[in-house]
Write a structure and sequence with these properties.
134 residues; alpha+beta; 4-stranded mixed sheet; 5 helices; 12% strand; globular
Length: 134
């Protein structure tokens, strides 16, 4: 399925780990290529539903890049390999996808227990807010 917007990262806005991931990307994305949407936002919910992700219980992030959706470890590696100084991360695609996704799933299933959960989506600072799609 195609999505009209490109370079959009869908993330769980109440997940501490996911929010830290978004901040990690935002700081390193000096070209300001990627934009972000929390799955709890109206736009994020529509995006999630379009790709079969349950917005009430997301089990993956999604990255729209090059007009296509990338999920789980493919999504993370797509983002990393497009950040300055992180192109090498694309080489991790040589690791078999079932193994990469098994590690991704293990972390995703335990992310609230290990890293915690916000009561509401984190609020980005003013500079970052311009890259958030709601």
């Amino acid at each position: 399925m195609q999505w009209p917007d490109d370079d959009v990262i869908l993330y769980d806005g109440v997940c501490v780990l996911c929010s830290r991931w978004i901040r990690f990307v935002a700081v390193r994305d000096t070209a300001r290529r990627f934009r972000f949407t929390a799955i709890q936002s109206p736009y994020g919910t529509r995006l999630a539903q379009a790709f079969g992700i349950d917005p009430r219980d997301p089990d993956t992030n999604a990255v729209i890049h090059g007009g296509a959706a990338h999920f789980k470890s493919d999504g993370a590696l797509t983002v990393l390999s497009n950040l300055p100084g992180w192109r090498w991360a694309g080489a991790l695609r040589r690791v078999p996808k079932p193994l990469r996704d098994a590690v991704y799933d293990l972390v995703a299933q335990n992310r609230y227990r290990i890293f915690g959960k916000y009561e509401a989506c984190f609020v980005p600072d003013a500079e970052f807010r311009g890259r958030v799609m709601e």
